[in-house]
Amino acid sequence: MLSFLKRLLPSSMRSDVVTIPVIRLQGAIMAGGGQLRPTLSLASTAGVIEKAFAFKSAPAVAISINSPGGSPVQSRLIFQRIRDLAQEKNKRVIVFVEDVAASGGYMIALAGDEIVADPSSIVGSIGVVSASFGFQDLLKKIGVERRVHTAGKNKAVLDPFREERPEDVERLKALQLEVHDTFIDLVKDRRGVRLADDPELFTGLFWSGKRGLALGLVDALGDMRGFLRARYGDKVRLKLVAPQRGLLGRRIGLIGSQLFTGRQDDAADLAASAAMGVADAAEQRALWARFGL
User: Fold this and answer.
1) What is the value of pTM for the model shown?
2) Which of 41, 44, 71, 103 is catalytic?
3) 103 belongs to the catalytic site
């Protein structure tokens, strides 16, 4: 009789079924979020991370990552939120790499107690990059004069409309080295003795998941379903935890959840939003393109 009643219960309530909450983190990492493609930031992921760790009976949280990187600050904030909740809720974190977990994407992956990658996925790129354009010759060609007035001699460093100064580049590189050192320390702290003694490990190079296993950047090769079934049994249940998206929270075209009334000011806002969306898309496309994606 008890066996019969047990079968009537939802699978998540049966004692012989292990439920593992699953989070999918996909997109470039940047504050504020993109308009045309999904992006990651602490603000956009905090809710779903909290929900996943709220599963009281789950022994672990599975996180699927597919990100080419982006903001080092947002990457570290997401990493720290995952680690804080893992310790608070006493849960194991298992990270699964999809196409790519590189740069900031790999920084987030470091939140995992274990990192599992597909043999053909891309991992690594432990470095820091800054990219911009120089438009000073274009201004001369079209007859436009750039006028900048500052209080503070270094307030307009690396202005893309002025000639690049060596001292500005030197200052930027010093900043990059500090950020890079923070990244390296985090990798060493999380991966420890698992890391291979390879001189190119922290040069910004990236590798396949198979090579990443040899370098100690990942712990195993495989896929989420197969790995979790082998770990927790054939009856393991994967529960995708998705963010809530109400009617007003849905993005509409290029303009996000912003509402437009048809006034003249709104037309200008719409044009500005569209331009920002195109710029965001170009920036994100460049991040993915670095890895042939």
Assistant:
1) 0.75
2) 103
3) yes
